[in-house]
Amino acid sequence: MLGFIWFIIMGGVIGWLASLVMRRDASMGTIANIAVGIVGSFIGNRLLGFLTGGGTIGAWPPDWSGVAGALIGAVVLLGILNLVQRGRMR
Length: 90
Known about the structure:
Oligomer: single chain
Number of strands: 0
Distance between the termini: 37 Å
C-alpha cells in the first residue's frame, strides 16, 4: 500500500515539475499533474529504460535515474499535448 501512495505522490511531483518546465502550471490542477506524472513516468521509463537502467517511479528509496526518465517522459507528454491543443510547442 505504501508503494501505491508513493507512486501517486511522485507522479504529482513529476507532473508539477514538468508543468513548470513547459510553462503550463497555471492551467493544470492537481489531478492533471498526477495523471501527467504517472503517464509520463510510464512513457519515459519505457522509452529511456535501456539508457537509465530501467528504474521505476514507485520504488523506495527512489531510483533517481527512474525519476529523471519520468520527468523527461512527462515533459514529452506535455509537449505533445501542447501540439494537439494549440498547434504549437511552447
